[in-house]
């Protein structure tokens, strides 16, 4: 209560002091142009006025800027800076009326602070282009964002610099308050109080230390309307200004300075929060990029080996490893990208508040001084209006981000795996021709084990499951260049088998017959036909041509869209028999050794069968039969034999009455 009475007494003293100066001001009104016209409200409306409550920032809304109260009077309008929620006393009302009467006669012929053209002038931002050559965002061998940057430390230093700016402004305003009663003598003192240690002031101060030069780079150069222009404007203003008023001293001391001090204290907390985000920028992008380069090299070597020589690694498996590594790299890169966006978004909003507070404080200060004489407009307001006041609150931030290599451009999009392009990405040799479950007969136990098989142009792989994302290492891989197929079960038999013969390779590695069993005759024939076509030639161009026709690929190696799928002969294929071409699976693994020379069992896997030179002989109680071409063949049960020449013969069955199946 005593504090309120003291404030009321102070306002009464101010009123009496202003009434004593009324006669002196009326004597100067003939040659003075006022800066408090009706256009003044339009000039300060976009920026807003700062409100205080007993020198304390409101906690509900941080840094409010639209708390200007307007008091109507018979002579015009007076904008008064009021505290939000503060009681309006009779003394305050009387004081406002007295102030209105004080400037009433001047307002009748005053000129505006800013003309219509100045008010409507579009805000400009100096844009700087980032140095460096633009890289292809589709390439898996580049990372478009900095991986070893330290943005949190840089941003903390930036806001520490803003605290220094605010501190410099506070020093200046404090000195302004102390010299308002001694205008002439104290103008030189105020000129020396304009102390921005890392800014250039009309070539009077050049940053010398490395720290000052580094801080100066945070802001636009002198003459671009940035905060760095303030020292020059204020120094020039104080060299020509010779008067002030007690109202200016009271308003600066009770409203503007406490608000900036609160803002400066809040920045300490924000700087600590920014430093805690340093762990978000620890990444392994460089490591993942090196692994991607290695996997891409392995894939390209596998493609070249499959196309021009003996393939040691299957391009299909190498592509699975490469695609998984690329996905891992992009995921790590996007995590880092999100950390940059989060840090820069928070920093942008924080700097917007800081710049708006500085703009508001300087606007109030300029308005108070502008009411005394037209000289204020000529020396101070006009320059601030065309410079710092005319900028967006984030114009310094935008230019800082654009020229600092520690940050990324705000409009830089994130990359997606689907946009990645690399050499031989759609090569037909990297597709799978067929995939599905088959049963393979054991070498020794004569039992069958079920597995998921993938047929590629160069290999037949056995996997434990059909999931290529988790199960990407094959249990067994057979090179089709060392295999042939010669026989399969007849239609209508109880079991649907076909035999894949691994050729003998050297003295130690002998051949072996692999017996596979399908769930249906059609499925068995599809496997048999595709394997036979791929084992009949070792020419990669022929294999690529077969895969292109088999999977209905276009000239770029991408699947065509067809309503009715067709087979290699151009005939429609039932829906259940179609196989969608895939280049699936992404994983980081080493291609296993191909199992095409390890089996030493040379006997035919089907019981009581064996090879004799160019034909397969079945040892059975049945007598041998001769086909029409004179070649002797035998059969046992549901097995038919195909000679080395490729002719298939169906022996007569005594039960069917000699009907050819």
The proportion of residues forming helix, as a percent range, comes to 40-55%
Radius of gyration over alpha carbons?
A: 43 Å
From the helix content, strand content and strand pairing, which structural class follows? Answer: alpha+beta
Question: What is the name of the CATH class of the domain at 151-394?
Answer: Mainly Alpha
The profile of the biggest β sheet is: 8 strands, antiparallel
Distance between the amino and carboxyl termini = 114 Å
CATH third-level topology of the domain at 151-394? Substrate Binding Domain Of Dnak, Chain:A, Domain 2
Q: Spell out the helices and strands N to C.
A: HHHEEHHHHHHHHHHHEEEEEEEHHEEEEE
- Per DSSP E runs of 2 or more residues, the count of β-strands stands at 14
Q: Which blocks of ≥5 consecutive residues have pLDDT under 50? A: 1-11, 28-99, 101-129, 575-582, 584-661
Domain PH: 431-536
Biased composition (Polar residues): 1-14, 56-82, 120-129, 575-606
Protein name: LAFE_0E11408g1_1
Keywords: Phosphoprotein
